[in-house]
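sry for the spam today, last one i promise. struct tokens for design, 427 residues
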């Protein structure tokens, strides 16, 4: 009679028949080998649906018109979520190209696309989503150390897609794949200051943004230690400025949520923010702005940008400013304006925090660009609790519910957390 599996052992070590030290966020064996550390509650089993195309041959599977439509939905729509900070559009161009011949990535694409369809328009696609999701995880945990799918960034890209799948599915632990992919992302040379192009680099920046989103929801440090990671100096594209502020914000989150900071660290942070802000080209600022008014129907500012990455840049900058304001004082924000923010006049800390939150909502909901909205949930979760005006609170709830119907993101928990922070009755 087989012995029951020991609780806490990762499924990757179980498959490889190795001793697992059960460390989190990734066990010692997976850290050493750079493998995906599968932490699902029980080992993934193959789910058989005879009528669904076999993903072992993606090009053959794509002859099924439903699968072809799902693949097209990813390439024409969903992939933009991941190319927000990548001028090469690796998730929109390279991922589909590789997926045509690579079952692991093909399964990730179809799983995410079908779950998105399930949540926005066609609930019947759940069966398809679950089938390809299980197959994708099965492919991931079968990878061996040194597999080229890891070194090329294919496995990391797949896990970024799977995390979005888990979020759309409303999984109790949407952080599962974020933990599992940690070893792949942490091996990225950017941690040592060496930029990496292509899918591996794009996967790293997506992982870091997803890590930031989770940390802003949970108010906890990132899984990734960025302490010794140098800041980006050269920016060859507008997207590089987003990656740069992403790195700065990640450092700020780790410092603030570990709560072991001193005054000098905040001085360094403010200098980093100033230096980055001063390097931003003028065209990245909003080209049009209408300030919101409680007395009108425009409760949030209307803020228009040339590119989606410019909106995401301001989001992360506002979150950074919010954290600095929380842990220091409003006076310390002097000289940190710019990027066409309203003048940082002499206000109370509460006024600063509310204004930053309203700006974040305005940036997110003016153009309603899906990639910006997806990236905005973390900033909204952390900052919108400082909104005091009831009319603005109700408008935010309305806008979030509208997002659910268009991009499929489950917003119930976010709305519930905000209502709790506002002291609003739960319905």
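last one done:
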């Amino acid at each position: 009679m087989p012995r029951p599996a020991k609780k806490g052992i990762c499924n990757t070590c179980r498959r490889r028949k190795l001793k697992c030290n059960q460390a989190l966020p990734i066990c010692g064996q997976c850290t050493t080998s750079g493998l995906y550390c599968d932490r699902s509650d029980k080992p993934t089993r193959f789910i058989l649906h005879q009528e669904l195309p076999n993903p072992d041959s993606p090009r053959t599977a794509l002859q099924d018109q439903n699968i072809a439509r799902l693949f097209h939905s990813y390439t024409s729509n969903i992939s933009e979520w991941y190319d927000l900070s990548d001028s090469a559009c690796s998730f929109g161009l390279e991922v589909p190209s590789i997926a045509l011949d690579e079952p692991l990535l093909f399964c990730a694409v179809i799983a995410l696309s079908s779950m998105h369809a399930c949540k926005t328009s066609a609930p019947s696609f759940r069966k398809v989503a679950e089938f390809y999701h299980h197959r994708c995880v099965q492919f991931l945990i079968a990878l061996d150390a040194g597999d080229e799918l890891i070194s090329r960034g294919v496995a990391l890209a797949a896990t970024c897609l799977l995390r979005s799948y888990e979020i759309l599915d409303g999984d109790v632990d949407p952080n599962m794949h974020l933990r599992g992919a940690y070893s792949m992302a942490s091996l990225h040379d950017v941690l040592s200051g060496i930029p990496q192009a292509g899918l591996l680099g794009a996967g790293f920046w997506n992982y870091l943004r997803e890590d930031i989103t989770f940390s802003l929801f949970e108010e906890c440090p990132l899984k990734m230690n960025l302490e010794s990671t140098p800041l980006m100096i050269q920016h060859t594209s507008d997207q590089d400025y987003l990656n740069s502020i992403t790195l700065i914000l990640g450092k700020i989150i780790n410092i603030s949520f570990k709560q072991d900071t001193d005054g000098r660290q905040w001085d360094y942070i403010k200098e980093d923010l100033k230096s980055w802000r001063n390097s931003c080209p003028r065209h990245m600022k909003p080209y049009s702005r209408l300030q919101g008014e409680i007395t009108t129907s425009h409760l949030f500012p209307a803020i228009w940008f040339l590119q989606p990455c410019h909106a995401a840049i301001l989001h992360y900058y506002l979150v950074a400013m919010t954290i600095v304001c929380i842990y220091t004082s409003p006076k310390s924000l002097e000289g940190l304006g710019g990027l066409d923010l309203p003048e940082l006049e002499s206000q109370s800390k509460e006024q600063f925090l509310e204004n930053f939150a309203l700006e974040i909502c305005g940036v997110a909901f003016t153009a309603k660009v899906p990639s910006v909205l997806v990236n905005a949930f973390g900033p909204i979760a952390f900052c919108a609790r400082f909104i005091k005006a009831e009319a603005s609170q109700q408008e935010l709830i309305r806008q979030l519910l509208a997002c659910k119907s268009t991009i499929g993101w489950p917003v119930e928990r976010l709305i519930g957390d905000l209502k709790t922070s506002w002291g609003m009755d739960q319905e």
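The first strand starts at residue 288 and ends at 290. ok im logging off now
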